[in-house]
Amino acid sequence: MKKLVDLHVHSTFSDGVCTPQELVSMAKSAGLTAIAIADHDTVAGVDQAITAGIAVGVEVLPAIEFSVEFKGYRDVHLLGYCLDHRDPILLDTLDAFREKREKRGGAIVERLNEKLRFEGRERISQEAVSALAGGSLGRPHIAQILIRQGLVKDMQEAFVRYLIPCDVPKRYFPIAEAIDLIRRLHGAAVLAHPMHITKEHCELVSIIDSLVPLGLDGIESWHNGATANDSAFLSAVAEKRGLICTGGSDFHGIEEGVAMGIGRGELQVGYESVALLKGLHEGRLIPGAPSSPPPARRGRAGDRRECP
After folding, report:
1. Among 10, 260, 9, 8, which Cα is nearest to 141's?
2. What's the gap between Cα 191 and its chain centre?
3. CB-CB contact of 301 with 44 (8 Å)
4. Which is nearest to 131 in space by CA: 95, 102, 163?
5. 105 pLDDT above the threshold of 60
6. Which of 24, 170, 195, 213 is surrounded by the most beta carbons within 10 Å?
7. In this model, does residue 102 exceed pLDDT 80?
8. Is 177 exposed, middle or buried (0-12, 13-18, 19+ CB in 10 A)?
9. Which residues of 70-100 are buried (b: 16+ CB within 10 A; e: fewer)?
């Protein structure tokens, strides 16, 4: 029987609605062998998940999902797997980033409260939102408070009516900086849900070929935004460039019709992805060597700017 995994789930420490322990329990019930808690710009929930996983026999990979910027593209995210999530420099970097994110959350609440005041409705409390967020404050935390106060009926209404109109732009990591950080921590840098960046295959090849010299290690070939043809295309791109293929549901607990392990019903990611990620991590662990990024991988001659 094939061992299945989900390498992209989110907890309450970023913008998910389930605790790390709940996610591990759900993974166990779903028959998954391994998961990766890949919260946005935080690793605060990783240790809780690892401990819960040991107790029930579910392997938990340390992971993170960086919000990154690259050549003006929107919705570019970078997954880091098997990295040293307790590294002091990483934690300091994430703390500084979280402070900026908290300010964004506060600004969104201010805008939202102004809209509520104009509508003659009850304001929401910044303190209540912050208390709900176990780590990095996200818009779903604000949405949950709106639901609790009876101001909206569900997540969709919260986003459509308030959170999208009252949004404040995020701060993003430069992608080269994020890749360097992941690799310095012996991790694997994987481009998340590429089809969210652009649906144009040749444009994606150009993007990926620009990232390979920076040290990109893999592509999330299987995800909810990819059709079967998209996944086959992404897998072919990865194989041609010597990149690892990963996959995950991007489960937050708020998306209608998305379940851990199977996404919208078609997702099936084998344990082979975990084995490759762990092998890359172990190959970068050199006893006694200082923490520094390994040399960037170069694509083979003739790979650049081509559609497979």
Report:
1. 10
2. 10
3. no
4. 102
5. yes
6. 24
7. no
8. middle
9. beeeeebbbbbbbbbbebeebeebbeebbee
